[in-house]
Amino acid sequence: MAPYLQSVSSFVDVPVADAGVDTVEFLKAAEGLAGIFDLLGGIAFKAVKSDLTGNIEKVRKRYEAAREKSTTLELLVQNEKVDKQNTATDGLMWLLRGFAFTCKALQIAQENKTIELKAAFQKSYADTLGKHHTFLMKPAFTLALNACPYRAVFYEELAKDPNGVSTLSQDALGEELDKWLAALAAIVKRLQAFYEGLGIKNPIQF
């Protein structure tokens, strides 16, 4: 059986064309990213994962309600605006904020092989998601960040299959994770520019 990153849909495989980011494949990959928080600590990161999955569901509901007008995320947002709605538009924006936070934290960890996850996630939170949180929202995330597992433990979990057997070397894992994060970052930055083009001031920090 495959280790985690090979068992879920990858952002590497999400089609991106002139019309935009494929909605269905994006949602599949988004669910895979949300599952990473189970590896980080199911209880401590419950609120973080719940926030992500809740926003994924908002986007999915809009897609299912208007499939022909929602084949890409950009079309989904544009047509929801025409219909004078914004639930999925807001949900996607918050989802992308969460993705920026997660992506940047793991990129920091990848770039500095000695940094612990707690420090990587704290730095990323301050630069991304934390700028959008109120003082009422920050305590839950602070609690989760303080509960980050040791770097070595997390990377070992990423390399294991569902039976707990390591089937991927750390070098191979690092290469795969870099590709996964690069594809995710490209999508987030593309949609960040798209939202800014709609006139929303700094909707996503990356």
From TrEMBL:
| Alphabetically ordered keywords of this record | Coiled coil, Transport
Q: Which SUPFAM superfamilies match?
A: Glycolipid transfer protein, GLTP
| Stored InterPro entries | GLTP_sf, Glycolipid_transfer_prot_dom
Name the Pfam families on file: GLTP
Give one GO molecular function term.
Answer: ceramide 1-phosphate transfer activity
The UniProt record lists the Glycolipid transfer protein domain at 21-159
Q: Does the keyword Transmembrane apply?
A: no
The keyword Disulfide bond is annotated on this UniProt entry: no
Q: Which domain of life is it from?
A: Eukaryota
Name-wise, this protein is Glycolipid transfer protein domain-containing protein
User: Which source organism?
Assistant: Antrodiella citrinella
